[in-house]
Amino acid sequence: MEYKQKTFFKDYKNKDTINIDIYADESKEIAYNKENITYIMVMAIPSDKKENLFNKLNNSRCLNEIQNNYANCKNNCKYHINNNVEIHYSHLGKHQITREIANKWIDILLENDKNNEKSIYFNILGIKNNSLEFNKFGENHIHANIYNRFFRTALVRLLRMFDEYKNVEINHIFHDKTDEMQNHFFFENRTVYKILYDEEIKGKNKYKFNTNKIEFIDSNHITGNIQDSQFIQFVDLILGVTENVIHANASNETKIELTNKINPLITRILENPGNKNSSYNYFNKQTLSFFPKMSRDDIMLKYGKIDETIIYDLLHNKDNFENGKQALFNKESNQLNIFDIM
Q: Which of 45, 35, 48, 231 is nearest to 122 (CA)?
């Protein structure tokens, strides 16, 4: 039976208010099984959990197992400066230091889930580009126009994880710096406005934004923000390793090691997203879905065309999102998928 996202919220009693900060990153098209997929990841961290989570990530840079406190280790650790590097998935494998830190960061994610700490919420949305005609999004800035629309969808689906609360306050929306999106004529300011407008149309007043724009920050914490930039790095790492669970396109030892480590969590999210009893406690906290569920031919058969209006209508129906691994795998292909070999 296919899992429906609406089951997320049935058993919760409304609490009062939760304050969160949001961090986002993307990866552009990945070719897979005759399909090109763009991924967007948005992560929410409750404000009252943020300092503790940051300390865990930052202290992972201290490779002195006895002290394990990066802020205080510089007098004892001769590698202190070398450990203060940006963690970027695409660069993994070049240095032993980044390998050790990245391993610790994935451990932090898994321990958060196993202990049900409720510090890390994320939604990953995979957009199956071949099923859509993206030239309908305008002649110029096509990728930016597409990303703008799907980013809002990914963000709203993340916010719905907090339906147990009467009110959700969003303090900041941080996004990794990207010239294309920073220069887009309405991405930075229109996202918040459109979400609030859509909520108002529905007669809802659940979300309160304490910011009216997306804040672009450098993912390098040395030149960017010491705390928020490292959360962007955390998003980049989780997204990159998750993609490799699905696509198995990495060849270096470090990425494969991290893939094996995160695989039990991501496989469970894909295979049984509605499992409330999982020991990883990911239900209603971490999701991975793909859009659209229908193939391009099926969309054409039903609607007679594919344009921005049709895509907009599809996005507003939860049944058009595929939550399970079957979203990716062509039944007519004899291709062995990652779930069969890991």
A: 45
Distance of CA 13 to CAs 4, 76, 169, 296, 309, Å?
20, 49, 18, 40, 36
The alpha carbon of 151 is separated from its chain's Cα centroid by a whole number of angstroms, namely 10
Which pairing describes strands 121-128 and 15-32: parallel, antiparallel, or unpaired?
Answer: unpaired
Tokens 């569920």 identify what position? 293
Residue 165, number of CB atoms within 10 A of its CB = 17
Total domains, the chain: 1
**Does the CA dihedral 244-248-251-252 come out positive or negative?**
positive
* pLDDT, block means (10 residues), the chain with 342 residues: 40 76 86 76 97 93 65 61 85 87 96 98 88 57 70 92 94 86 68 85 86 90 90 97 89 94 94 94 94 67 64 67 56 36 35
Residue 291, helix vs strand vs coil: strand
* Residue in the block written with tokens 């992560």: 43
Strand runs labelled E in 243-309 = 286-291
CA distances to 127, 136, 290 from 295, rounded to whole Å, are 12, 17, 12
Determine the Cα–Cα distance for residues 102 and 304; give it in Å rounded to an integer: 47
Contact 194, 153 (CB under 8 A): no
Q: Which of these, 288, 322, 321, 314, lies nearest to 41 by C-alpha position?
A: 288
Q: Which residue has the tokens 């292909």?
A: 333
Q: What is the pTM of this model?
A: 0.84
288: left (phi over 0), alpha (psi -120 to 50) or beta: beta
Side chain identity at residue 175, one-letter code:
H
Report the CATH number that the domain containing residue 138 is assigned in CATH.
3.30.420.10
Query: Which residues lie across from 22 on neighbouring strands?
Result: 44, 173
In whole angstroms, what is the distance from residue 197 CA to residue 213 CA?
14
Q: What is the 3-state secondary structure (H, E, C) of 203-249?
A: CCCCEEECCCCCEEECCCCCCCCCCHHHHHHHHHHHHHHHHHHHHCC
> 96-114 and 47-59 helices cross at what angle (nearest 10)?
140
Extract the tokens encoding 232.
């962007």
Q: Tell me the residue range of the domain where 205 lies.
A: 5-341
